[in-house]
Design a protein that fits this description.
By secondary structure, the chain is α+β, with helices and mostly antiparallel strands. It has eight helices and twelve strands.
């Protein structure tokens, strides 16, 4: 990236380091695992239909000083700057999320890290199914992580990432190694945060990992997924309960004012109306 981190100290401290660690595979594994637990994936800005700047000063302010998380172009872009500061050979990639049979735009950012001649992907911004360990390219072996097992399969000149969830393999996203410039990332983020067809516009999606667990929130539906155990899900009653979960379960500092509460009330009301309409049609 063209602009270095202004002050890596608070970033490293959030990740449990009082001094810069060496650029090794063990360091990368530790950083990725801790990052997904410390910095939630969240789309509060797109729920509020606010701009999502992805320049480094804005990302440092939001994630390191304002108590917020972000989506892939925010989390992975800041993480990339940290890796490069520590001396890793790392660069950005973009991916197509798999949803049905229709090809989607390159709306996900992930990272390529080269260590001792071996290529690894590292991703701290894929929401509820974010890998919690780097994954090695050029092998189709099942790769364990502190959470689910993952696999990278060569497909059409690139790779397909999939994860085993509840005994079944789930396709997540496809990517290649085409170099990405800063402007490519800005365009991808602009599409995700402004296009009417983006699944983030007017919706709240939040995710965070923990020791053997994943927490997810989609609008008013909150779930805790524990390894080897059934998921627990509950529907939140109102905007105040959603905000309580955002603070207590995801450790987010919420924007001041009434805009978030009003947006949540509108979103929950729209979801309730859609649910009633589906029941009526059935």
């Amino acid at each position: 990236m063209s602009t270095p981190l202004k002050d890596p100290g608070p970033y490293l401290a959030r990740l449990g380091f009082d001094a810069p660690p060496p650029p090794t595979l063990d360091t990368l594994r530790t950083l990725q695992l801790r990052h997904t637990a410390q910095f939630p994936f969240e789309t509060i800005a797109t729920l509020l239909r606010q701009p999502v700047p992805v320049d480094l000063p804005s990302l440092e302010r939001k994630l390191l000083h304002e108590g917020r998380g972000g989506y892939c172009f925010e989390l992975n872009r800041l993480f990339l700057a940290l890796l490069q500061h520590l001396g890793f050979d790392a660069r950005a990639l973009t991916a197509r999320v798999i949803e049905g049979d229709t090809p989607l735009a390159r709306t996900h950012m992930t990272l390529l890290v080269t260590l001792d001649g071996a290529a690894w992907t590292s991703d701290v911004g894929f929401g509820g199914m974010v890998p919690t360990a780097p994954l090695q390219l050029h092998t189709d072996a099942v790769q364990p992580t502190p959470h689910e097992p993952y696999q990278l399969l060569e497909r059409d000149g690139g790779w397909l990432l999939r994860a085993r969830v509840g005994g079944d393999w789930r396709d997540l996203y496809a990517f290649d190694l085409q170099p990405q410039l800063d402007i490519d990332l800005e365009v991808g983020s602009w599409y995700v945060s402004t296009h009417p067809g983006s699944p983030f516009i007017g919706h709240l999606r939040v995710a965070r990992t923990g020791d053997g667990i994943r927490k997810t929130l989609h609008n008013g539906s909150f779930a805790i997924h524990r390894l080897g155990a059934p998921s627990r899900r509950r529907e939140l009653a109102d905007a105040d309960e959603v905000m309580h979960v955002l603070r207590d379960e995801f450790d987010l500092r919420l924007p001041v004012g009434d805009a978030l509460r009003e947006a949540l009330q509108a979103r929950l009301a729209a979801d309730a109306a859609a649910g009633e309409a589906r029941q009526t049609r059935a």
